[in-house]
């Protein structure tokens, strides 16, 4: 479809964007690169549309009527089409309002002599007729002859060759309207769910959409109002200083419904509709507001800019959700605040977010003291104690700076210039800033400039920062530290101590700057550790071992992996001998010290899943698998032993399932009946030997029975 035709169909209400599509997120550089590719006639991707006479809810004010017949919905290519609409027409497309355009990519300029592209730069473009707004060229408000005349008016002689270049380049821009966007169309017979599944597959192969955005597209398919409801709540929280993304909301819903952070596909199914609406109602009306107020009043967090990863709020949100939004006790609040602070200092969620949320939300779900357990998890990976050396050379982006600011607020610290509390104040000029105690201009003159990387890092170190209000920061200027701090000490005697600033005046001389830093590092480390340790007492908690933890340990005398229960992966058929291997392993565990058998895991720890076994059971599922397994074990060991010594549970790892069989040791020996090579039944006795099951011959059985069962 030609670009000009695409834009016409949008204006003529023939091409729409469905509500489940994400917002416009392209930036100016993306828009510039798209136009550059079109000018050079490079490939610019394809467009995926869906022709339907039963469209889902649409973006924008237009309401679909059956009298329209079939219309096209733009599923893939929306960012490119929106960009072209804005640059060519100079206005927003009808399916977006100005408030929904995060980045206005209009105003791109082109040099019609060189075809260089750039957004407006006064020094470069003003009074230079060659630079024109590309929208004016598309709309034919400027012609090549106009530019030639303007150049001539400036006294420039324009040769015929130069005039042709300008004219050719203008036509190159105009011809973009005739460029074809290859179009792939989903047929009219497709349902909403099928169309979104195709949308998912198309986007899953690229990197443009996050898993949470794809999940939100599915949610919007079976709950059209979801995106608008989520955005309305985000706007409300934004006004309170808590800025979250739609991704954050999706993670919160996944955590509340499934205690997971990784498997977004669980939200794709329309069966989630009712419980997802119920979950959102509780989040919207109670939990999110409660958590925000709790963090502001008890953790001294006035804005999410102070948080290195807002996803650390997800376990807190899920915990409060599990409590039905009811108020927490003082002990619960203190424990969650303590864990939150350490999660920030030790950057718990800066990497591997989904996997860490999986583990942490499982603790929230299963542990009677979840925040004790969560804190213990951090302690296993990192040291909790803050050392003075951790401040060396680190600037204000380091998580210790946020912790320092929260601590100052908790102590009632004040601005060093105005004496006003650092807690949230009204008015922009009283927003908090972080200013150098020793002015950088003075340090630079003393050799701490950019020419010496180590010295420069010390000049910018967070221990050379005080928290001030904007109005105070402007009045402070470049006053020498010794004069500035002396004035603070005189006007507000406790202000320096409350911000952990050394009060030894000899350290305020610039010649002793590094000694000042060393002393303040010690002060901060000592005070922060004391504060964090004494928020509340926490206890060692019993944290359940995850499936990933088990597999990472590898096979042992108490852990064995089996690829399948009965499906021979090499032969591609059912193999009853594999079932015998399972019974041998379970017999060996119960005759030894017990153990764990994981089915659906290869010898090297790779997750294979149970799909092959499910297929072998006539297209079954975990219920059929467990029934078959228990029948097999009951026939071999008897229902009494199986019900008391064997437990079965299933885990989901991505899209695959693993069966975990826990076996307890038995007080009496267990003999199994297995057929030999000739098909004759024979009684056998198995025990564990290292990471394998070993059959003991009769000659060795008596010794083992005497040692193990007596």
Characterization of this structure:
With 710 residues, the chain is an alpha+beta fold. It has 4 domains: 3-183, no CATH class; 210-384, no CATH class; 389-533, no CATH class; 553-709, Schlafen, AAA domain (Methyltransferase, Cobalt-precorrin-4 Transmethylase, Domain 2, 2-Layer Sandwich). β11 and β12 form a beta hairpin. α6 packs antiparallel against α7 and α9 crosses α11 (246-258). It is globular and about 110 Å long. 35% of the residues are buried.
Which percent range describes the beta-strand content?
5-15%
- Calculate Rg over CA atoms: 34 Å
SS element count, helices: 29
Q: Biggest β-sheet, characterized?
A: 4 strands, mixed
Kindly give the count of domains: 4
Q: Specify the structural class.
A: alpha+beta
The geometry reads as globular
Head-to-tail CA distance between termini: 84 Å
Helix content: 40-55%
Chain-averaged pLDDT: 88
Structure in a nutshell:
The protein is an alpha+beta fold. Helices cover 47% and strands 12% of the residues.
């Amino acid at each position: 479809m030609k670009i000009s035709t695409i834009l016409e169909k949008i204006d003529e209400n023939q091409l729409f964007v469905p509500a489940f599509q994400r917002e416009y997120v392209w930036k100016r550089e993306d828009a510039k690169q798209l136009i550059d590719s079109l000018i050079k006639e490079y490939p610019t991707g394809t467009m995926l549309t869906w022709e339907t006479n039963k469209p889902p809810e649409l973006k924008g004010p237009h309401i679909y009527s059956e009298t329209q017949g079939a219309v096209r919905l733009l599923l893939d290519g929306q960012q490119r089409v929106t960009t072209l609409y804005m640059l060519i027409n100079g206005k927003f497309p009808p399916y977006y309002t100005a408030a929904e355009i995060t980045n206005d990519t209009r105003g791109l300029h082109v040099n019609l002599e060189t075809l260089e592209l750039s957004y407006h730069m006064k020094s470069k473009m003003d009074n230079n007729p060659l630079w024109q707004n590309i929208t004016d060229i598309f709309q034919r408000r400027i012609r090549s002859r106009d530019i030639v005349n303007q150049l001539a008016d400036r006294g420039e002689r324009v040769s015929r060759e130069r005039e042709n270049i300008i004219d050719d380049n203008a036509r190159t821009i105009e011809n973009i309207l005739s460029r074809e966007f290859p179009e792939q169309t989903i047929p009219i017979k497709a349902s909403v769910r099928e169309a979104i599944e195709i949308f998912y597959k198309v986007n899953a192969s690229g990197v443009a959409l996050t898993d949470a955005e794809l999940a939100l597209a599915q949610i919007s398919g079976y709950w059209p109002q979801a995106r608008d409801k989520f955005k309305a709540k985000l706007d409300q929280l934004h006004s309170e200083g808590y800025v979250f993304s739609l991704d954050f909301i999706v993670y919160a819903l996944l955590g509340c419904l499934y205690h997971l952070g990784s498997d977004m596909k669980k939200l794709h199914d329309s069966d989630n509709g009712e419980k997802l609406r119920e979950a959102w109602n509780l989040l919207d009306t109670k939990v999110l507001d409660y958590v925000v107020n709790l963090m502001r009043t008890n953790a001294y967090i006035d804005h999410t800019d102070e948080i290195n990863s807002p996803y650390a709020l997800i376990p807190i949100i899920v915990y409060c959700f599990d409590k039905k939004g009811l108020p927490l006790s003082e002990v619960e609040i203190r424990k969650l605040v303590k864990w939150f602070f350490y999660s920030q200092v030790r950057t718990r969620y800066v990497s591997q977010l989904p996997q860490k949320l999986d583990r942490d939300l499982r603790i929230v779900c299963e542990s009677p003291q979840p925040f004790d357990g969560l804190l213990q998890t951090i302690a296993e990976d990192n040291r909790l104690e803050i050392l003075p050396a951790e401040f060396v050379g680190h600037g204000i982006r380091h998580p210790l700076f946020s912790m320092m600011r929260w601590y100052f607020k908790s102590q009632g610290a004040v601005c060093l210039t105005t004496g006003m509390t650092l807690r949230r104040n009204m008015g922009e000029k009283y927003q908090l800033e972080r200013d150098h105690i020793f002015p950088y201009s003075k340090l630079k003159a003393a050799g701490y400039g950019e020419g010496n990387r180590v010295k420069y890092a010390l000049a910018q170190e967070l221990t050379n920062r005080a928290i001030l209000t904007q109005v105070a920061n402007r009045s402070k200027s470049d006053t020498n530290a010794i004069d500035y701090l002396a004035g603070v000490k005189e006007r507000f005697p406790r202000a320096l101590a409350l911000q952990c600033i050394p009060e030894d005046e000899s350290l305020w001389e610039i010649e002793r700057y590094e000694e000042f830093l060393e002393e303040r590092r010690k002060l901060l480390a000592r005070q922060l550790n004391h504060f964090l340790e004494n928020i509340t007492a926490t206890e060692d908690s019993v944290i359940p071992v995850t499936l990933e933890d088990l597999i990472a340990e590898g096979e042992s005398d108490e852990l064995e992996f089996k690829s399948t229960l009965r499906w021979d992966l090499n032969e591609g058929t059912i193999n009853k001998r594999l079932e015998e291997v399972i019974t041998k392993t379970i017999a060996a565990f119960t005759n030894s010290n017990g153990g764990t058998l994981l089915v659906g895991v290869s010898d090297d720890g790779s997750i294979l899943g149970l799909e092959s076994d499910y297929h072998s059971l006539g297209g079954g599922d975990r219920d059929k698998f467990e029934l078959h397994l228990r029948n097999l074990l009951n026939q071999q060991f008897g229902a009494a032993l199986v019900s008391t010594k064997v437990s079965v549970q299933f885990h989901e790892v991505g899209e695959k399932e693993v069966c975990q069989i826990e076996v307890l040791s038995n007080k009496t020996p267990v003999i199994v009946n297995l057929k030999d090579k000739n098909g004759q039944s024979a009684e056998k006795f198995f025990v564990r030997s290292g990471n394998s099951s070993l059959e003991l011959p009769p000659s060795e059985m008596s010794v083992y029975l005497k040692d193990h069962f007596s």
